[in-house]
Amino acid sequence: MTDLPRSQHIVASGLVAAVGLWVTYVSYTAEPAAAFLFPRIIATVFVVLALWTFGKALLGRTRVGNGLSVEALKNILPGLIVSLIYVFWAAKTLGFYTASTIAFFVLLSLYDPAPHGEVRTWGKRIIITAGFLAVMYSLFAMLLNVFTPRELLF
Amino acid sequence: MEFLLYFGDVFTPFNFMLLLIGTIGGLILGATPGLSPTMAVALLIPFTFRLEPAQGLILLGAAYTSTVAGGAVSAILLKIPGAPANIATTLDGHTMAKKGEGARALQLSFLSSAVGGVFGVLLLIFLTPLLAQWALAFGPSHLFWLAILGVTIIGSLDSSSVVKGLLSGCIGLWLATIGFDDIMGTQRFIFHSSVSGGINVIPALIGLFAIPQVITMFAKGRRRLDAEVIAVEKHPISKAFSEVFSRFRALTIGTLTGSIIGLIPGVGGQIAGLVAYDQSKKMSPERDKFGTGHPEGVIAAESANNAMVGPSLVPLLTLSIPGSPTAAVLLGGLLIHGIFPGSDLFDNHPQVAWTFINSMLVGQILMCVFGLYIAGLAARVAQVPNAVMAAVVLGLAVFGSYSVQNSMGDVYIMAALGTGMYFLERFGFSAAPLVLGLILGPIAEANFIQGSMIANATSSVGTYFFTGALNLLLIAIVVASVGYSVWMELRSRRYITKDDAVAKEEALS
C-alpha cells in the first residue's frame, strides 16, 4: 500500500466499479440484445476487473498509484476551476477568442512565479496573452479557417 | 525496393517544407519538459485535416521522430529529460555538459540518434511489406483477436498494474461502443447529447494525452524552474562524427536494443534507452566511467530511443496494432483520412505509405543537422514557465478539438476524458491501453460481428473463434502477455515500469 490514505483508492476504484456495474446492467438489459452482444463481453470483463480493483482497495492492498496530496490538490483546484469554466461555459457564451484570452491571462496570473506586486510582471503577462491570442487567431481563423463561436468582441 | 519509387515525393517543395516544420517544431517541443512526443503529435492532428494524407503523415512523422531526439537537449543542458525516453541520456549527458562538454554531448546525441533512427526506419522499410502481405491471410476472427491483443499487450506490459492496465483497456473498449450501433442503428450508452454520435477519436486523444499534462503543470503550483541552462562551447563536428563511429560497441548495442524493443508492442522508448544504457555499461571495459560523463552512455541511450521509432510503426502499419502510444495517435491520424493500415495501405495507397516512411528516413538526417544548430534555442524554450505552457496547451487542446467537426460536444468530451484520465492516472490507471481500446474497439466489434455471422452460417461461434492455428497462436500470445506480466508483478521483478520511469523523471527534475 502506498502512503496515500486508503479512502482515496476506495473512492476512485469505487467510481470505476460503479461505472462498470452500470455498463453491465445496461448491456444485459437493453434491447435489442443483438446490438449489445459485443458490449456484453466487454462489460463482463470490465466489471470483474473493476470489482477486483475495488475489493483490493477496500482491503488496503492497492500497490500502485500515488494518489493526490493535499498540496497538489490545492495547486490544481484554481486552475482546474478556471479551465472547466472556460471549456463548459465561457467558450460558447463569450466566444472562443474572448474566453481563451481571459482564461489564458487568468491561468498565467495564477501560476506565474513572478511577484504579483510589480507593474512589469503584469505588463509581461499582458504582452504574452496578446501574443497567444495573435498566434491562435492566425492559426485557426486565418490559416485553418475554423469558424469558432464568436459572441463577444470577435 | 518499391520505396525508392516514391522518394521524390518527399522533396516536393510543400512536402519538404512540412518535413522541415515538423522536424524543427518537434525538436523544440521535444526539448520542453512536460510536452511528451505523444501529446505533441496529438495536438498536431487537427492541423493535418486540410492536408493530403501523405502530407499530414509527413508532419506527424517528423514531429514524432524529432520530439524523441529533442528531449535530449533539455536532458543534457538542463538535467530535465524532455520525455521519459531521454532519462538515460541525462545520466552521462548532463555530467558532460557540466564539465564544459555540452556541445560534444549534444553532437554525439544527435549523431547517434540519426544512426539509430536510420537503422530503425530501414527495418520498417524492409519488414513492413512482408508482414503486410502476411496480414492478407487474416480473416475476421484473426483481426478480432489482433485487436484484443493490441489492447491486452499494452494494458499488461505498459502499465504498472496488470489489472488496472487491462481495466483501462476495457474502459477504452466500452467508450468505443458509445453511440449508434453500426448494424442495427440502436442507441448505446448515450447518457449525454455530446456523445450521441459516439466518441470521436481525435478529441479523445487530445484530451487523454494533453489535459493530464496541463493538470500536472497546475499541480506544481507557482514553482519557478530553477534549472540553469549550461552554456554550449564550440566543438568540431568532425571530431564528434569520428567519435560516434569509434565507439562502435555502444552504438551497435543501442541501435539493436532500440530496434528490437521497438518491435514489441507496448514497450516504450524510456525502456529502450535504459536497457541500452545498462547493456552498454555491462559490456564496456570502461564501465566505471558510466555516470561520470562517459560519451558511450549518451550514444547508447540516444541511438536506442530513436532506433525504436521506426520499428514501433511496424505492427501499426501491418497489423493495425500500435506499438506505442504515439503510434496509436498516428493510427488516429491515418483513420481520419480513411486509410486503414495493413495490406490495404500498401496495395491501395502506396504513395501515402512510402512517402510517409521515406520522409521519416530523410527526417532523421534533418533532425541531426538542425538539432545541432538549434539546441541552444531549444534549451531556452525549455525554460518557458509552466504557467505559459499549461495555458498554451489548454488553448490548443480546446481549439484543436473544436476544429475536428466544429462541435462543442467534442470539446466537452476532450475536457471530460482528459480531466478524468488525470485522476485515474494518479491511481495507477494508464492512458495508453485506454486509447488503444478506444481506437481498436470498433475494429474488434466489426470483426466480431462479421465473424459471428460467418460462424452462424457455417459452424458455431466457439469453433470459428477458438480453433485454427492462427487463432490459437493469437490467443496464446494474449494469454502469454497477460500471464508474463502477472508473473513479473507477483515476483515484484518487473523491469522498468511506467511509474518507475515517471518517478525517475520526477527525481531527476
Summary tags:
heterodimer, A: 154 residues, mainly alpha, 2 domains, 73% helix, B: 509 residues, two-stranded antiparallel sheet, 23 helices
Q: How would you sum up this structure, described in words?
A:
- The complex is a heterodimer of chains A (154) and B (509).
- Chain A is mostly helical.
- Chain A has 2 domains: 6-58; 70-143, no CATH class.
- Helix content of chain A is 73%, strand content 0%.
- In chain A, 34% of the residues are buried.
- The model of chain A has no long low-confidence stretch (mean pLDDT 87).
- Chain B is mostly helical and 509 residues long.
- Chain B has one domain.
- Helices cover 74% and strands 1% of the residues of chain B.
- Chain B has 23 helices and 2 strands.
- In chain B, strands 1-2 form a two-stranded antiparallel sheet.
- In chain B, helix 8 packs antiparallel against helix 20.
What would a concise description of this structure say?
Chain A is mostly helical and 154 residues long.
Record the SSE blueprint.
The complex is a heterodimer of chains A (154) and B (509).
Chain A: H1 6-29, H2 37-58, H3 70-94, H4 96-111, H5 119-143
Helix pairs in contact in A: 1-2, 3-4, 4-5
Chain B: H1 7-10, H2 13-31, H3 37-44, H4 53-77, H5 87-134, H6 140-157, H7 162-177, E1 179-180, E2 187-188, H8 201-219, H9 237-246, H10 248-263, H11 269-283, H12 295-307, H13 309-312, H14 314-319, H15 325-335, H16 343-348, H17 350-381, H18 386-405, H19 408-426, H20 431-457, H21 461-466, H22 469-490, H23 498-508
Antiparallel strand pairs in B: 1-2
